[in-house]
Amino acid sequence: MVNNPYEILMHLNIDSVSGMLLLIFFILSIITSQIRNSLKIYLRLGLIIWLVFFGYKIITGNNLFNDATGQTQRELDGALYESAYIDGKWMKWHKVTGKIVSN
Length: 103
Fold this sequence. Notes:
Elements: H1 5-11, H2 17-31, H3 36-60, H4 73-80, E1 81-86, E2 89-94, E3 100-101
Antiparallel strand pairs: 1-2, 2-3
Helix pairs in contact: 2-3
């Protein structure tokens, strides 16, 4: 069972905070769709927030919630490891130490 709500959203292939916020506001707008004006308000608010996050990412190249270096952990891991298909299986090794790590 998944206890972390972020992991639940990761299973839905929503990787960015802006995508999560857009999904939340979209769900809220569906719930309150009985009142037509509230639907418009939630969709506009969700769109504005999504544009702020997406615009920041376009301008800076980073998400708002990355670490202090401005890189995600996935980018850092990709910079440190190299992989190749050797002896019928994929091998992965650390670029600095040269040690083979498990897949």
